[in-house]
Input
Amino acid sequence: MSSVAVIDYGMGNLHSIAKALQHADPSVDVQISSTAAAILQADRVVFPGVGAMRDCMLALNGSGLAEVIRQVANTKPLLGICLGMQALLTDSAENGHTDGLGVFSGHVVRFAQELADTDGVRLKIPHMGWNQVRQQPHALWQGIAQDSRFYFVHSYYAQPDDGAIVAATCDYPNAFACALAQDNVFAVQFHPEKSQTVGLQLLKNFLHWDV
Output
C-alpha cells in the first residue's frame, strides 16, 4: 500500500487535508505525523500550512523538521500547500525578514496595499476566495481544465528567481506565481483541500505522481 505523510508542526488544516487525500484515493495510507522517521518512511509527503511565516519557521527549526523537509525535497515527491509553499522559498518579507527552507530559490513578498481591478474597484488583502489558475504543462494538472478555479487565502505570494519553475499563475490583478515545480517538488499557493473536484483531482495526481 502506498503511503503519504502529512507533516504536523502545529500549523495547518491537517485533518481536512488528510481527509481530502483519503477521499482522492481510499487505497492510500494517509498519516499525520510530526516524527522524522515516519515522514522519511512515507512514499510521499505533504507540507501544509496556514498563518505566519515566522511562526512556521520557528516551529520547523525548533522541532528539527526543517532539515527533514529539505531531505524529503531531495528524495521523494513533496507537495507544499499555502504557507507550506512559501516556506520552501529562500526568504519572506513577512515580519520584516524571515529565512525559509531554500528548496526553491526566490522570495515571498506582500501584495501592494493599493490594488484595483481593471474597472478601478479596489481589491482586498488578503486575496481570498476562488480564482482562475493558468497552468503550465505538468503531470499534476492531468484531468484539470485550463483556467479552473481554486480557493485562495493569502496576503503574500512567491517570486521565484527562475521563471522556469512556475507551474501556474493567477491574476490579482497582475499575474503572480501560484504553483511552483522543480524535480520531485510541487507547491501551490491555493488550498486543494478546499477546492472541490479540481482540488481532489490535483491531490489524486500527486498520490500517483511517478517522478
In short: The radius of gyration is 16 Å.
